[in-house]
Design brief:
3 helices; 3 strands; alpha+beta; 79 residues; 3-stranded antiparallel beta sheet
Length: 79
Amino acid sequence: MGKLLDLSKDLHELLLTQEEFKLPLSTVISEYQLWFGKKTPFDPVVYGFTSIVTLLEALPAVAEVSTCRCTCCVYAVCL
């Protein structure tokens, strides 16, 4: 559970730095790697999930996945 908690904090930080606090779903992994300088690929399986969507849906206090202008986006949840 510690890895997932760390990820949720990192993801929240990343989303708060984005315009309108959102990222297109298709760029979440690459933006995460770029923002935190991660060299290894981001893999939801490491956190016990089969896809990035199921991983993000498991973090409802941090992120919300929804459609914006016909594109699936990830929004920061205001705490």
